[in-house]
Design brief:
398 residues; alpha/beta; 8-stranded mixed β-sheet; globular
Length: 398
Amino acid sequence: MPGHPPVVIVGAGIAGLTLSLCLARAGIRVTLLERAPVLTEVGAGLQLSPNATNILFHLGLGSALDATGVRPEAVVVREAMTGKTLVRMPLGDTMVSRYGAPYVVIHRGDLQQVLLQAVENEPRVRLSLGVEVVAVRQDAEGVEVDIVAGGEATTIRGGVLVGADGVRSMVREKVMGGGAAIYSGRTAWRATIAADDWPDAGHYAEDTTLWLGAGAHLVHYNIDAGRAINIVAVIDDKWTDEGWDVPGDRRQIEAAFAAWPIAPRALIGLASGWRKWALCGAPDDTPWVDGRVVLIGDAVHAMLPFVAQGAAMAIEDARMLTAALMASDGTVQERLALYAELRKPRAERVVAMARRNGTVYHLGGVMARGRDLVLRLMGPQRLLQAMDWIYGWRPEDI
């Protein structure tokens, strides 16, 4: 691909920014198009396991990630009604020694800024904001993309078009003929608070804490170098709001957790400015590649947040798509097809695990007691071994 027309990427989120950086470092020119006029963070915190941080650290972003991110010591799983610990899986130094890279929790906006600054320093990347893609055409030699920016229409040409535009991907639906996003029956409520505002913060500061309850679960962990706490509450719910990201009524989320122990209820009660998201997935029959057009990240394999792998899978995609485009064998179309062939089984396996966990996390009654017993019997080492295939992945493994 070096010396060929640029890769055109639609979407400047985590997937698009990471891909732009990977391609630029490999000597490939990039045209990065974003519909929003200003890049602002969407969501709150996210978790980056070693399969993702290994890639980001190799891109030279380790110091920047550590400046605002936090390396938790463990994931602690608690039973919601009693507050008792079911299992404590080590992270911290264990991640580095076992997988060669850390486990980092970070505000999504901070990660986006780290990636954006690195991209802006890459002369091979041209970032354009406030751009609407109107039409796409492809031929044997490349793709043509009709865009409107600042009220002016123009056409740009590239060698490949990448849809990195999220679960409600325009590229998937309008260019590749894929289906619309599918609502999962669950909503995620997200908020952050200052760590100093929660009297119990010190007790939980070193861990990522996961509370499991009937029809709901709660996750919280420190971000912003320990100065803030990220809160994610996921509930079984119907979605009746316009749009997919809306302000949340604090009374609704407090009512959903009214029977929970005092610690998580106190944390929820401290938060204001709640936002709620409709948790959606991409259709199972979503095409990955169509000639010179390819999808990455949530556009092709959006997953529920029950394995904390959405961002990590997008980062893996970026690294492997770059490797495919840099390959010396085959046409561009054949390289894209090979990328999809190699990535699809892993992504589908993670998506399936997230779905299973979604059911398991929200069990109630006798089934929940059985789940809790299994977690206690597994213990930290067996739980860690169960994650080896995810956390231990490296680009050279494929």
